[in-house]
Amino acid sequence: MAQNPTRLLNAHPFLAEHSVVHRRSRARAFIESQCQTTLYPNLCIRTLSYYARNFATTLSHKQLAQFALKVTLARAESTRAYVTGVANGLNRTTAKDYRAVIECLDQINDGVDQLTKCIKETQKIREDGRGNREFPWRASNVQTWMSTALTDASMCIDGFSGRAIGEGQRQ
Questions:
Q1: Which of 24, 43, 57, 135 is 20 to 30 A from residue 32's alpha carbon, by CA?
Q2: Which domain of life is it from (predicted)?
Q3: Where are the domains positioned within the chain?
Q4: How far is it, in rounded angstroms, from Cα 131 to Cα 10?
């Protein structure tokens, strides 16, 4: 009769306690369960599992939120760098899209600021049960700032209303 490999790992106290496979699967299961409530669960799972794959124990809600915020901030900063490059490539006096790109860049900068505030606020949340009276306030701050960052991103996208940047600029 073939032995179940998980059962074999768990049979040895050292392997059961220190199994990387065991730890990773618990962290991934937690990520999967939390991502099910998002708008794009598969993207959430793929992205957060990549960043949390080397995490040694089960993640807490706070740690998962911080991972998600840090990933989002990194993507926003990357977008900011790209849009800055686009702005630098447009002729300020003749490109009709220059103003829209600059306004978009302002929105992205605001979003980066909001995400940074979210990260700092989540770092203040205590997981030990003390400071529970502060949790609703801190969670509300994070929710408000995330909403603002999403609004900023939407406004940037809306500024181009489906047209390509620099459209009609080539001669």
A1: 135
A2: Eukaryota
A3: 8-59, 60-162
A4: 37
